[in-house]
Automatic annotation (TrEMBL):
Domain of life where this protein originates: Bacteria
Domain LUD: 116-221
InterPro entries documented for this protein: FTHF_cligase-like_sf, LUD_dom, NagB/RpiA_transferase-like
Protein name per the record: LUD domain-containing protein
Coiled coil residues, start to end: none
Species the sequence originates in: Roseomonas nitratireducens
SUPFAM superfamilies: NagB/RpiA/CoA transferase-like
């Protein structure tokens, strides 16, 4: 059934035809302006404090963060984390040009395939779209270069995120998502991830990895001079 057929069926159910021009203009204006909701004061802070708030909230929700000087340090940081956690050196990598274009030759023990994740993959490395400081949340929209399966199937997920992509509030993350996209276009799926998957449904006992990754590790690339901590 086409979009117009669906809308026509709704109009019939409401017993009315198309909206009058003034009402249509009002609705279209509201959709175009994206009115803001209440934004918590804790996220309206200077850039270094915003990034620090993001890190604190990630760690509060059982995630971990390592700050890196640049993207070139990502392969070494992945190798270090896998060794610390006694994890295999093989992983599935998001087919994003920022990750596939890195020089991996300095860490020859690392083995990866750039593709969607499968049920047999133990570790995934995802490219982060944005981070939200007020809750320590990652915004991970579906994209051929950021397969959603990387966020779900592996027991350990590593996300590479630029500090310049950390915003204070959810509304600002949605602004980033809308920016530069064709009018009316949105990703098929947008995942908001706060820490590793967990549940306390059974006897109020916290269980990590209940519905997704048991570990969430963020490699935070300090590419924003304004967000660096004071010397």
């Amino acid at each position: 059934m086409s979009k117009e057929q669906i809308l026509s069926a709704i109009r019939r159910g409401l017993k009315r035809g198309p909206l009058p021009a003034d009402q249509r203009a009002m609705i279209e204006g509201r959709l175009a302006t994206h009115p803001r909701h209440l934004i918590p004061a804790r996220s309206r802070v200077p850039r270094p404090e915003q990034v620090a708030l993001f890190v604190r909230n990630v760690e509060k929700e059982f995630g971990s963060v390592a700050r890196l000087p640049g993207l070139r340090d990502v392969p070494g940081a992945i190798a270090d984390y896998l060794a610390q956690q006694n994890l295999p050196s093989r992983f599935v990598l998001a087919p994003h040009e920022e990750l596939t274009g890195l020089d991996w030759s300095a860490k020859p023990m690392l083995e990866f395939e750039a593709r969607r994740a499968q049920g047999s993959d133990a570790v995934s490395v995802q490219h982060g779209f944005a981070g939200i400081a007020e809750t320590g949340t990652l915004m991970l929209p579906s994209d051929p270069r950021r397969p959603t399966t990387l966020n779900i199937l592996a027991e350990t997920e590593i996300v590479v995120l630029r500090a310049s992509r950390i915003v204070g509030a959810y509304e600002e993350a949605w602004d980033l998502l809308r920016d530069g996209r064709p009018e009316g276009f949105m990703p098929r799926n947008v995942m908001l991830v706060t820490g590793p998957s967990r549940s306390a449904d059974i006897e109020q006992t916290l269980e990590l990895g209940a519905h997704g990754p048991r570990r969430l590790h963020i490699l935070l690339v300090d590419d924003d001079p304004a967000a660096l901590p004071p010397a």
